[in-house]
Structures are given as structure tokens and as C-alpha cells.
Amino acid sequence: MIEARAFKKVLASSSAFAAIALAMPAWAQTTAPTTPEAAQTAPAAEGEILVTGTRIRRDGFQAPTPLTVLTQQDIQNTSPTNNIADFVNQLPQLAGSTKPANSRLNLSNGSAGINALNMRNLGEGRVLVLLDGRRSVGSTIYGWVDINTIPQALVDRVEVVTGGASSAYGSDAVSGVVNFILNKKLEGLKIEADTGVTTYGDGGNYSGSIAGGKSFAGGRGHILLSANVDHQDGIFEVGREREWNHTGYVRAENPAWVSGVSTFNRYFTTLRNVGASNSTPGGLITGSAGTTANALRGLYFGQGGAVNTFDYGSFTFPAFTRASGSSAPSVTQNGSWQVNDSGRRIGLMPKDDRWGVFGRLSFEVADGIELFAEGSYNKQKVFFNAGPNLSTGITYNTTGCTTVPVPVTCNAFALQALGASRLAGVTSVTVATTAADLPFRAIDNERKVQRYVVGANGDFDAFGKPGHWEIYAQYGRSDVREQLRNVMHNTRMANATAAAFAPTGNARGYTVGSIQCLINVDASTTNDDPNCVPLNRLGVGVADQAAINYVLGNPYRDQVLEQYVAGTNWSVTPFATWAGDVSVSVGGEVRKEKIRGTVPKEYQPVINANGTTTNAWSVGNYLPFTGEYSVKEAYLETVVPLGLGLEFNGAVRATDYSNAGYVTTWKLGATWAPIPDIRFRVTRSRDIRAPNLNELYQAGTANSDSVRNPKYTSDGLNGPQTFGYSGLVTGNPNLRPEIANSWNIGAVVSPRFLPGFTASADYFRIDLEGAIDSISAQEIMNRCAEGIAEYCAAITDDPVRSTPTAPYKLIRSQPFNFVRKLVRGIDFDAAYRIPVGAGSAFTIKGVATRYIENLSDTGIVGQVAVNTVGANGGQASTPKWIFRGSATYESETFSATITGRGVSAGKYSATGIECTTSCPVTTTTSTFQTYDNNRVSGLFYVDLNLSQTVPFGDNKAQFFINVTNLFNRWPLLVPETGLAANSTYSDMLGRQFRAGIRISLK
């Protein structure tokens, strides 16, 4: 019934869209151009092709770097949603991309709700996203480009280069380039509207767009405009209808395992009907102190503060008894395993509202010379449930609760809930809660992204051959408000939790026996807060709204990212050899990246005298930071035909950073077609990624702990055995560009005996050295002890806390260039188009990637570099196989496409050893641990897309319906509490219906 209602809802909405759209032809006839190409993509200029991955323009050039082209028809036939990013992310090469469904926990970095591409699982910052071959301003402090800012109604095709391209485009093109190419010569008007919903009746969405283009002045000028609006309902909880997250499938540490002993007892065991037992929605007593230790452990507070006994069932980890001194168990099997209900209070999809406009004007001022200007503005508002306000280790003082009158040392809410008889001999209780009475923490980000480009391009005659030039300047700006909602203020929460009965003669005149904040009724008046309202956290439905308002706040910071770019590109054919024309492209670019931010004082952490900070809020604690860098670049690229089907392609780029110095990138490539049926290709390149603004200039957050002195000797001459330290997590302005050495080797087959068939296979290897990552304070100490100056520069003596006998350190935990990343694999691509009659064809397409190796080597002693390929457990996992295939039947008026996509089965943990007998010896610190079941299943989803085109006059309307996850398959499950699925590769929402209409008006 739910599925039927959802489907009817989609059809009703799409019918409304259709009625509105079909009522427009009269208006369209009076305003649309009369050219025969109206509302169609203009064909590419004959004899000249410019493809992503190279700056060379020449007849029929095929680059040695692998290139995947996604046409507008591909997108319309098989896109799973109304967002082009969801289609692009189905490519196997774009593994691990950030998308709304898996960005739910990004509370403090501003990336929640965006669509940012990640190629080869090397990170969003190592793939370059372009719009018509030019950069776009980042939408986050990491410089990630949000695909939502692309004018999707105008996208003609998407070109994906799966190989290093820094020599052509500069920094960030380490794993590849994704270039969104617009239809800049559109004639006519295109209107599209659609709506969708899940099979459970939630996750409703709609989108609408309009795009139009018209030539004027006899074809010398052209104007292009588009606008879009998109809405997505949020799914803020995983209800029981999505039963996959309520099975209690959990990995737990085996209490029968013995450290250092070879035995059949594995370290980890996987179980069903298991849930978290370390907290409950209304609070769980995890320990109590007094004459009888832990006498109250295992009591939990339910509706209205009712006291219940938690049933720890048939299994717990760790094994314990209620009154023992051992830690309270984190999970339990059977019994009260569902009380915590951690699988429900998790968001699956943010509420997302966005709109954007784009405009472009071009004019041919003279033969072969065109001036152009374009601009875009996009606004997004995204709201996401980021989970409950979890608190552990809340201590309630119960000293004196059994005496009369009750002293202020007795927590009033504890006495009220537990009663004096239970508290006899109990001096304190410790409670952990998921805070059902407090609203979810939430992310409420707003982004405004604008981009403006002006330039000129043209053709000219050089050396008797046609040449091409362009020059442009652009400005981009992102205004980002990173807003958190319902965040606990640490001090106010402590004040409100510590409640007491107002004693006789209290200074503020409270009614004797009323419950007040302890700070306002104790003997001291210097710690009073007249705004404090006591908060009852012991139970469900017991908290006062005024108290909730007092303890929660909405921290935010405003960030402005700016990008200035100017560049020029020139392509010529200066001479020819006996084998053919030699092509050359030269150019340069200057660019500046800036960031500045502001944070209201009340939302900043407290800055201490020694420069460290104390966090005022449970999350957030923003500090404003500013910074900028500039870069100057110049490149040269050439293509030289060598005869016998062999072509050489080479490029070099000189780059000079204001902060990181000079670096050179280059590419050597070749293609060889010994016969028309097969072409071999190879590329060797050196590519870079420059540190982003956050890595360079992050203002800092605080922590404190102790570190071991790596130079300690028993005579004490080299200092104490341990140092206390204040930690400051900051950016590092001395970072260097990361350097990647890459190989691509492959072949393309297009057999003449099988017209319409093409297949390719390409081996890739990316070896990234000096990758930027954060490092622990202890490892900074260790590397300084080895004499590495850049690490020693991060350590100073704390002038405030140090004494002659007890030195105290100030350690800046900065990012450093210290990681090596290696990714290897093979890409496969095939397509076969079969005509089946006049105007009809059947097309089969398939792409797949077999990952061979993906490892990170930190070089840290004791840390093992592990190949994570085939480990499907984590969100950043890399399955062995990622694949996608489609079959399309298409006639002049009808199209049907069925798509299959998925990943191969694999392991839960890359370091896991599955065994049932004779398990190897392990300890709690072993890198490789033993499991009774280390397997994770694969995924296979089926999507269906149907469309019917209806002509009306000289125009046409296309009605379409899309069903994603046709058989409502479950996500890829992993044995964990909370969200028990891999959200990176899984369809988290279940079956989805989408229907809409596309109208083309001449």
C-alpha cells in the first residue's frame, strides 16, 4: 500500500507539471527562434576537436590519456535522480565521492550536503573539476567544487579523464579531471520538471529548470540563459520500515578470547540481536559509588522518569557483573538490546533547497574574433540531522540524599527519580544518555556561490594552417555560513544538570524546596548565573523547555572564499613532418585563492594565556582564520605524428607558488594504431596537488594530554620520561605540493567486422608522495627526536605551565607532507550499438574497474601499510570490482533503459583474519585481528528508465519515469551499531520513483 500511494503521488505531480508545460506553446511560438536547429544541441565544428586532458586542437586527435564521455542522452536515459552528480558518481572510477547521504557527520567542516567528486578514492581535493575547461571556486574550505553549482540544464556532455593532467590544467589533477561542457549555442527553449518519492512515501523531491538560447545580429551574437530550482525532503530518522538497520547485526569483541594465546576463540565475533548497552534515550546508570560499589548499575530511566532494570541478555562485551569494578558493557545480545535504539536516530538524507541562474552573452566583433561574458549565481540551504546529543560519564552527586533536610550536595533530580531508599549508602551515580528530550544536533548550512568570466577567442591563420586563441579572466566567490543547531554549551549544561533543592535562607529568595541550579543556591555568589534553568536528564518527557533553551545554542561561522584567475591558450600547427602536421599549444595562467572568516565571540573557544583554547561547545568551537596564496603557471604541449600509426604527445608546465615555491609537472604519452581496428595508448605523467587553504591557515582547536619523551634515559639527563603538553591543531603554512607519478597503459578495440562495437582496457598506477595528512603529537615528538627540523619547529616550551622541574610542551599538531599513497587497477569500458530498424537501435554499455591496490604508508614505526582493496566495511572502502552496465532500446519517440550497477563482495576489515580453529596469536594492539566472519556481501541494483516523446506542432514533449533500485534491495550491511551500512556505495533510501516532463520549443 505504501508503494502504491508513493507511485500515485509521483504520477499526480508529474501530471500537474505536464498540464502547466503543455499550456505554454502559444507563448513559445511568439518568442522562440525560427531556426531549424531550435532546442537542439549544436553540432561540433567539423575538423576540430578539443577534448579534456589536452590543450591541443586538431583534426581527429585521440589523446593517450583515457577519456570517458557522458552525453546528454546518456544522462537523460540513465540518471538515477534529478542531480547530475548522482549519475556521474555511478562511474566506477569515481569511488568514494562525498554526497548528501554520506556527509551526515561532517558537523564542523562545512561539507555537509554537497556533491564533491572523488576519483580513485584518493580524495575530493585530488580530482580537478572544470566548467568548460576552466576552474570553479570551491564551496568548502578544502576547495572542493560542489557539482550542484553546475548549470545542469545546459550540460551538453561530461568528459572524465582518468589520469593525471596537471601539465595541462595545473594543480589538483592528480587522479583525473571531470569537465562539464555546456551547450553554448543552444537555440530555442528547454523546460524540464520532475518529482519523486521513495517506496516508503518519504524523501519527496522536485526540480524544475528552464534554459533558452537565441542568436541575433545575423548570427554574430548569441545569448544564453538558464534557471533551476530543486528541493529534497529530509529523512531524519531510520524508521522501522527500513528494517535493515534494526536487525542488531553487530561485531563484538569476544569475551572468551585470550591475549597472546593461539586458540579457536577469535578476537571478534559477529552476532544478531545485539544493541548498544552503554546508554539509553532517558539515561542509563553505568556506575555508582558508595558503600556498595555499582549497586545501581543497570538501572535506566524511561517515560516520565520511570526506573527500569536493563536486561543485559545472554552476551555482553566486556563480560561483567553489575556490582563488579569492570567497565559497563558497550553491547548486549538479546535482553534489552533494542532499548538504546541507536539504529533509528540517524539521518539518511538532508533537507535541501537550492536554486541557481546562469547567463552567457557572446558576440563576433570581427571575422574569427568573439567576445564573451558569463555569470552564475547559486544558493543552497541544507539542513541535516547529525545525531543525538550523546553524553557519557554524567556524574550526579547523591551525598546526603537520605538526610533531612536534604543538603545542596544532593542532586535533586537524582533523588526525585531514584528515591531515598535506593540512594542509601550511594554517594554518586554515573549516567550515559542519548538525550531523547533534547532535539537532534543539526547542520544548517547556507552557501552562495557566484562565478563571472569575461574573455575573447578566435581563429587565425598561422604558418598556412588554422590556429586558435583564447584569453579570459574570471572571479569566483563562495559565501558559506556553517551553522550548527542544538549544540550543547559545556558550562551551561554542567550548571543545569547540577540541580539542588533550594535551602532555607538562599540568597536569591527561591522557594524553599524548589529545584534550582546548584550554582545559584550554594554558598558562593561569584558563580551565579541568573539565566540558569535546571535540566532534568533522567527520563523521557521530563525536561523543561526553558532548560533546553538554556543549555543549547546554534554556533556558526561565516567564511568567504575568493578565486581570481586570468589565463590564455594558443594552439597552432607550425610545421609538418613526413608523417603529418605537428600541433603545438602554449599558454599560461595566474591565480589567487583567498579565504577570510568571522565568528561571533560567543561561539569561539576560550583562548588561554599560553595560546591554547578551551572548548565552550560540544562541537563547533570555531575560530576565524584568513589566508591567501597565488600561483603563476605556463605550459607547452605538442603532438608529433611519427608515422605507421604512431603519435607522440608531450607536455610540460612550470608552476610557481607564492608559498610553496617552484614545481614542474610533465606528461609523456603515445598512441599507436597498427591497424584501424586497434589503438594502443600509454601515458607517463608527473602531477601535483597544492595544499588547500584549510591545510595552510586553519586557526586552531585545542587539546591536552601527555607524550612520551623519545630521548629519555634513566639518568634523567635528557628530560623526564613523559611531558605534559597543550595541543593546538592548526594549519601549516610550510606545506609543499604533493607529487604524483602516474602510469596509464591501455588499448582500444573497434573491430571492422563488428560495426558499432568498441571496447577498451586501461591499467593505471598513481604513486603519490608527500601526501598531506595530520599526525599525532607523539609522532611529532618522535620525528623531532630523529632530527627532522620541520617537526621540531612544531614544538615549543609552554611559557605558562612549564617549571624548571616539570617542563610542559606546546605542540602544534599540524598537517605535514609525510604519507605515501599508491593506487593501482584496471578500467574496462565497452559499448555495442545495433540498429534494429528504421530510426531504432539497441545499445549495450558497460564500465567496470578492478582495483588491485590502494594503500597509505605513513612511515610511522609500528604502523603497517595495508592494501585496503576488497575491504567493503568502511565508508572510505575500495571494493575489488565496481561496475555499471546498461541496455537501451531507442526509437524516434520511445526509449527504455535498464541499468545494473554494484560492487563485488569483500571483507569487512582489510586487516581481519577469518578463522574458526587454530587462530593466530593476537593482542589488543595487533594490526591483524581475528574474526569468526570477516565477509561482507556485494551489491547489485537494477534501475529502469522509460520515456515517450510526443510531438506538438514543431515542438515536442518527452514524458519520463525512472525507478531506482527496482527490487528494493537492502544496502551493503556492515556489523556495526548506529548506521549499519556502507553509505558510500549503497542505495540508502530504497526503491525510488521519479517522473517528469521535458519540453523543447522552437
From TrEMBL:
Membrane topology designation: Multi-pass membrane protein
Keyword Signal: yes
Family as reported in the entry's similarity comment: Belongs to the TonB-dependent receptor family.
Organism of origin: Sphingomonas kyeonggiensis
GO cellular component, as recorded: cell outer membrane
Primary site of residence: membrane
Cellular localisation: Cell outer membrane
Chain ranges of the TonB-dependent receptor-like beta-barrel domain: 528-966
Cleaved signal peptide residues: 1-28
InterPro entries attached to this UniProt entry: Beta-barrel_TonB, Beta-barrel_TonB_sf, Plug_dom, Plug_dom_sf, TonB-dep_rcpt-like
Protein's name in the database: Outer membrane receptor protein involved in Fe transport
Taxonomic placement: Bacteria, Pseudomonadati, Pseudomonadota, Alphaproteobacteria, Sphingomonadales
UniProt KW keywords: Cell outer membrane, Membrane, Receptor, Signal, TonB box, Transmembrane, Transmembrane beta strand, Transport
Domain TonB-dependent receptor plug as annotated: residue spans: 62-177
Pfam families (UniProt xref): Plug (PF07715), TonB_dep_Rec_b-barrel (PF00593)
